[in-house]
Amino acid sequence: MNVTTLEGVVEHGQIRLKGNARLPENTEVFVIVPDLGMRQGARVYSPRLARPEQADDFRMEVSQDRSDAGV
Q1: Residue 65 has what pLDDT?
Q2: Residue 26 has what pLDDT?
Q3: Contact, 20 vs 31, CB < 8 A?
Q4: Which of 15, 22, 68, 69 has the most beta carbons within 10 angstroms of its beta carbon?
Q5: Interacting residues of 47 by C-beta distance below 8 A, sequence separation 6+
Q6: Can you spell out the DSSP letters for 8-64?
Q7: What are phi and psi of 10, to 5 degrees?
């Protein structure tokens, strides 16, 4: 089996070959996608309690301290 490598991009769900590359109708092709994991941005997860029974220790309290309101 002879193999030719062509580059392309996906646009609107279809593969568009770069340059003026054209393939005959019904040509069998194999699509190899580079690892996309490196292109994704960092993912930050929400923190979780190791012991959920301690949730009350972290309950937020709202206070009305206006001593620095002039700053």
Answers
A1: 76
A2: 93
A3: no
A4: 15
A5: none
A6: EEEETTEEEESTT----TT---------GGGTSPP--PPP--SSGGGGGGG------
A7: -95, 125
pTM of the predicted model as reported, rounded to 2 decimal places: 0.43
Q: What is the rounded CA–CA span in Å between residue 25 and residue 23?
A: 6
The single-letter DSSP state of residue 66 is: -
Q: Are 18 and 6 in contact (CB under 8 A)?
A: yes
Cα angle 22, 23, 26 (rounded to 5 degrees) comes to 150
What size, in residues, is the chain? 71
Compute the distance between CA of residue 11 and CA of residue 16 in angstroms, rounded to an integer: 7
* Stretches in the chain below the pLDDT threshold 50: none
Rg (CA), the chain: 28
Q: Which residues, other chains included, contact 18 with Cβ-Cβ below 8 Å and sequence gap of 6+? A: 6, 7, 8, 9
